[in-house]
Amino acid sequence: FDRILFVSGLKDYVRFHLADTPRPLIALSTMKSVEDRLPADRFCRVHRSYIVALDKIESVEHNRIRIGDELIPVAPAYQEVFMKKIGG
Asked: Do the beta carbons of residue 24 and residue 15 sit within 8 Å?
């Protein structure tokens, strides 16, 4: 769990974006299945296609999360839960 920066969905696959690894690890799975397996106190679903590691968030700007060079959108449906988890 410590190396996961964020998870992104791609139809029937998920991509695990890992620290110190230039290319994501791709697995045949659903976002729901991954969300259910990740610890809820360390990860948060912020979009239909994204789950982020809370401790890897560098900043939140206008409903977007910055993790490294990536800007990840926060969908309105997930915004309230996300803001509670980060203490906002």
From this structure: yes
